[in-house]
Amino acid sequence: MLVGAKLGAKAGEAPFIEGAKDETAEGMAKMVADENGIPLSTQAVQPGVTTGASTNSGDTIDYYVGANRKVLPAKYKEWIGENKGKEILNNVVDSDGQNAVKQLYRGNSFIGDGGTADAIRFERATGITLGKTSQGHIQKAQDMVRYLQRILEKPGLTDTEYGVLQELLFDLEDVLK
């Protein structure tokens, strides 16, 4: 679920904020709003996405909070998407292939299609690093390219699996160019 509200940004503060004590996106939004002295109201937008507005700003949404407890400033709203990981995973039976999909599409990621390639696109377009390291998702993508190449060499993949995994590989190779 994604929650939005008014956030008073502080100079030099990272747009993504971690450390919520409440496991829900609503709890995270409330925590951020409380820390900034902002009354908060929320509403559902799409599955997994909720927005809210501070009573100080009318209906203006200043940030969004995802189920992964990350805060995204409203100016990046166009990057919010629906995670396609489960949908892709349903087309892969091979255990290594499933592992690759799970690594590329973390459950609560909401940037683009929720995958590593869209995370890199976001990082390059905005200059904001989403990963736990200063490199962002580049190293992960490079490692996953090699992993997917090895998986695609395995005998026994169905045509569907091969096609899905190859598409993931091509997407990563494209974003790494």
Structural summary, described in words:
The chain is α+β, with helices and mostly antiparallel strands and 177 residues long. 39% of the residues lie in helices and 12% in strands. Strand 2 and strand 3 (49-54) form a beta hairpin. The longest helix is centred in the last third of the chain and has 17 residues, at 159-175. It is elongated, with a radius of gyration of 18 Å. The model is unreliable at 1-23, 41-50 and 53-58 (pLDDT under 50).
Outline: elongated
Characterize the biggest β-sheet. Answer: 3 strands, antiparallel
Helix content: 25-40%
- The strand order across the widest sheet is 1-4-5
Uncertain segments of ≥5 residues (pLDDT<50)? 1-23, 41-50, 53-58
Distance between the termini: 33 Å
Brief descriptors of the model:
177 residues; alpha+beta; three-stranded antiparallel beta sheet; two-stranded antiparallel sheet; 6 helices
Give the topology:
Layout: E1 3-5, H1 25-35, E2 40-46, E3 49-54, E4 63-65, E5 71-73, H2 85-89, H3 95-104, H4 116-126, H5 138-152, H6 159-175
Antiparallel strand pairs: 1-4, 2-3, 4-5
Helix pairs in contact: 3-5, 5-6
TL;DR?
The chain is built from six helices and five strands, in the order E-H-E-E-E-E-H-H-H-H-H.
